[in-house]
């Protein structure tokens, strides 16, 4: 009814205005009509304006997102050149910590939130300008403590300390190379198990991911050092001579008095840790890296620095997939019952890459003579010894995984501290990382 009356009123008003306009020559018709229709016109115009503005805002937003993504893609290469080529991470420890792009890895509630902060021209001798502002989303990297299945290893006499020594750990070295850890400051030692015939692989490691550890004339004076370990018993004369020449040139060769064999891998690492306690007592961490693994050294160091804020005696890497790792009694990985009488190993860390804190290393070295050396190196060091000495085992997916097929793109853009890589691809991967380039070529060990 109200709407009907309003309509009738409008019609009467309009008719009155028409008659009046005729008398006034039509001068006031437009004005009066506009006054009557103004509320409806204003409402329609206002709604149309909002829709138009929303469309404009959405278009601008999409355009900005596209520009930001293009900017991130174009600056990615420059970022990685900064990380892997120009960043002089180790030259000054205080400066390195302040400008380390991975500095903001924080271990809160045992979660590592790694956010790559904006970079400015804070690194000495850097050519990068203030416009290098990189914003990468935070990546959660859980660090979980490895716990045993309930009750199995409780109160077993095997894990109790023997009263007399039963194993002999070599403590003399044919090439000792004490100079590796002679200078301060010293924070982490990387040890690599190598064989005499892997000369090219060692050179590739020195000139790729480990290149920042060496100064002029291949002299190591950074806060992270590296050494290759060998068994010297039974080597041919030419192999001994070649290792001596290599040691004279690079200063990173250690040869101990035991024979190289798969069954002696645990003995080899136990000897390496014994050498570390003797000649690198100031090293806070010892990283064991295989020669078919690519390591991001600055990130690895910062990672364990954060771990050490919460743990003192620890070993950290990537946990073996089996919840009850079985013991093999035949074949290459055979373990005698006299050496290890149980049917399963304690949960352990994959042997291709892990880090042990210095307090944990010292406990292991003291206990080695009183333990039967189990040939499975990773199960022995990170499982049996860690269980025996109540050393905390930590697992994180930032460490390499043998079943992952890593491509060059993974190395260029993926966040990790270690990754599997065939030795023949080391140079190719390093060049790609340094230049920020990318390809789908698979370079992992188990491709």
Automatic annotation (TrEMBL):
Main location: Golgi
Pfam families assigned to the protein according to its UniProt record, in alphabetical order: Galactosyl_T (PF01762)
This protein's GO CC annotations: Golgi membrane
Transmembrane feature ranges: 52-71
Enzyme Commission code(s) on record: 2.4.1.-
Membrane topology: Single-pass type II membrane protein
GO molecular function, one term: hexosyltransferase activity
Designated name of the protein: Hexosyltransferase
GO biological process, one term: protein O-linked glycosylation
InterPro entries: Glyco_trans_31
